[in-house]
Amino acid sequence: MTGLPLALTALGMMLAAVFLRVPIALAMGFAGFFGTWYVIGTPDGSMAQLKTLTYETFSNQGLAVVPLFLLMGQIATRTGMSSALFAAASDWLGHRRGGVAMASIGACAGFGAICGSSLATASTMGQVALPEMRARGYSDALSTGVLAAGGTLGILIPPSVILVIYAILAEQNIVKMFMAALIPGVLAALGYMLTVALYVRLRPGAGPVGPRKPWSERWGTLRATWPVIAIFGLTMGGIVGDWDWSRPGDQALFTPNEAAAFGCTATALYGFLRGRLSLAGLLESFLETAKATGMIFFILLGAEIFKGFLALTRAPNLLADWVLTQGYAPMLVLVAMLLCYLLFGCVMESLSMILLTVPIFLPVIEALDFGMSADHTAIWFGILALIVVEVGLITPPVGMNLFILNGVAPDIRIGRTYVGVMPFIVSDLLRVCLLVAFPAISLWLVTLTG
């Protein structure tokens, strides 16, 4: 057995192991290790590959941003930034029908930009915004649905750990991935707000009108958000700001690693100065970051081992050649892959899904003619894949964000959350269609940098 049949057999065995609750890192690592052993015919080749890939993976400087952005998110969760964002957004929008739900989306977008984690965004904002919406008489379906959907903004709005992981897997520039995600991220937040507006127009009782706050109070709560705005602006602006457009990247104030370190330091200083972060809280943040980093790095190592096995079998290239010889339209192939992401998202965790599928799907996508360069195709496909992964986070019955909200409010039946999240899934799918039809939406900022 060689080539594509061997790769498909290994993939099937790996998926079976995953569904039997074997950790994804071990499933990918063992499939890649023993698959390489089978191809080479000796364990020595597999051991040599394991040693090489372990060193290359863990010594990759680009991965330094992963623990730093994770630490930034852990600290931000403990410093009360989410409360300040929600208070400001609620004061400005709360007097409108459905305004507190819209404010929750705005606060999720702001906190997700600092936190970079969808699960942490959903959990933190759920604790902050859900009691307020319930106190104002919002329906349980809308309250939990909007927060589950808003939490997904953490995966797309940069800086995002999954954006970094995808950039490394696809061998793309991290900064360009961040830039490509900015406009789709803003569109996601605006689309969710529009969804809320339509929802309460059809069901006025789901989002009652609140009291109008005086202008002095609005400006006061808005001023309280300046640390969040400053940290995000300096972190992201430092990566892409002050560019000489004829020489992309030469004039950036920060490298991604430096920007992540700055963001961590600034967030911690904010917490200490405001008295909201203790030494014990900082140590706990370090511990949680170490746990998450270890998990991500070992999953990434397993993915690299499996990717090396696929390279030996030439399965991705053979699959790309087969697709080309069949004459399928590029858009048809793209839609089929996105549907796979949507189906996998119902039963798999988002990071594992990206690490498992990118080595297989990306060579096929890059071989097709979408009227753009291979690098731009890879960036565009990455943004589309991450958006569909977002949908997986809120797709019943296994969407992780749904269970996060159920844990925050266990008295609300999970079925109500399923109902409330459906309009936001429709919004996401419409956004995917828009980005498929108009790739320039995600590539415009990238093309400005050459």
Q: Tell me the strand percentage band.
A: under 5%
Shape descriptor: globular
Q: Work out the radius of gyration.
A: 22 Å
By DSSP (H or I, 4+ residues per run), the number of helices equals 22
Q: Summarize the amount of helix as a percent range.
A: over 70%
Q: Give the end-to-end Cα distance, rounded to a whole number of Å.
A: 44 Å
Structurally, how many domains make up the residues? 1
Instruction: Write down how many β-strands occur, each being a DSSP E stretch of 2 or more residues.
Output: 0
Largest sheet data = none
Quaternary status of these chains? single chain
> Helix/strand/pairing class, anyone?
mainly alpha
Unreliable residue stretches: 242-249
Describe this structure in words.
The chain is mainly α. It has one domain (63-448). The protein is 78% helix and 0% strand. Helix 7 crosses helix 20 (400-408) and helix 15 (279-313) packs parallel to helix 18 (350-367). The radius of gyration is 22 Å and the shape is globular.
List the helices and strands and how they pair.
Elements: H1 3-19, H2 24-40, H3 43-58, H4 65-78, H5 81-93, H6 99-115, H7 118-135, H8 140-151, H9 153-156, H10 161-169, H11 174-202, H12 215-223, H13 226-240, H14 256-273, H15 279-313, H16 315-326, H17 330-345, H18 350-367, H19 374-393, H20 400-408, H21 414-437, H22 440-448
Question: Quick gist of this model?
Answer:
With 450 residues, this protein is mainly alpha-helical.
